[in-house]
Amino acid sequence: MKKTYLLGFLLFIVQYNFSQIVRTKLPDTISYWSKSNKVGLDISQITFVNWNAGGNTSISGLAKGNFVREYSKKHLNWKNELIIRYGINKQEGQEVRKTDDQLQINSTFGFKRDTISNLFYSGKLNFNTQFANGYSYPNTENPISKPFAPAYFFLGIGGEYSRKDLNLNVYLSPLTQKTTIVLDRKLSNEGAFGVDPAIIDATTGEVLQNGARSRTEVGILITNQWEKEVFKNINLEHRISLYTDYLNNFGNIDIDWQLQLNMTINEYVRANIGTHIIYDDDIKAKEERDGQQIIVGPKLQLKQLLGVGLVYTF
Fold it and tell me: SS3 of 188, please?
């Protein structure tokens, strides 16, 4: 009889605890995704009326956006980033001119052996092109670049060292494919951006064979990103990409380096100053001489930015 009462009491305790577990509200899902969205608009304007020292009235605008989606779970990490920028300038007596133009997609998938290591085995994809035609001003009849002319596509495998606490990321790939795309027929026939030019009859000028619309290389890619608050409300952001091809001029390094200071005024107003340096041996510069475009050798490309505007993060 005592055993029967004891068994009944134990069953009652088990049933009661089970009912409490069932009533406990558990989360429906656990998300391993994080996101960051940032959009901004920089505007600068200057007006002259009867100004003795002279000057041209002008207005400039730059729209920009940065969108990040990241999946992180135990040994896996997958980061995706979309960067867009487009800027224009209008000066008195001149047509509207483009000042900035970028469409970039980055995606990195990494795997690490344990949950405490900062070293990942990674695959990286990068795509870069522009939204609108580019010109060597004041010549606006002959574009020197167009959307998907060029477009750059990188795909490779390697190792990545990532420290979120330091906002530091270093990626090294000994095997990366770089594809340069030039979809515009006129530019591809000229051999722009390193693709094979058209074969032209020297006597008649007739195009015997159209130029290639793409070029593929295989080489080494090194990238580095770092961000740090150097002073109160002033952040330094650094991004660099170095690439060299195994077969064509190995050791001749393509450089893409961005350095920017972001200064926070308040929650919505930011100021920034930065530089963007590009060197690619396959990009031949064009100069305007006596009304004609002349192709010259590769040159260091430099862009300097200074702006104050609105930024919204969500």
Answer: helix
